[in-house]
Specification:
The protein is built from 3 helices and no strands. By secondary structure, it is mainly alpha-helical. It has one domain: Helix Hairpins (Orthogonal Bundle), CATH 1.10.287. The model has no long low-confidence stretch (mean pLDDT 94).
Length: 69
């Protein structure tokens, strides 16, 4: 997922997406430990997507705080 797509979403949508990615990461890690995961690079991709989502959430929070001043 690209960052420009995340900037268009609302905070609620981002938090929902964050929960989905966190559950996917849990599933991937579990499958990796039980040696059922063939493509381990997906774990890294999901972690980066989670970081992008958290960054977008934080940026929107900062913009809202800046608007209040």
């Amino acid at each position: 997922m690209e960052f420009k797509d995340l900037k268009k979403k609302t905070t609620e949508q981002l938090e929902q997406l964050l929960n989905e990615y966190k559950s996917e990461l849990f599933t991937l890690r579990f499958r990796n430990k039980t040696q059922q995961l063939d493509h381990t690079h997906k774990i890294k991709q999901v972690r980066k997507d989670i970081a992008r989502i958290l960054t977008a959430i934080r940026q929107s929070e900062l913009e809202q705080e800046k608007g209040r001043k």
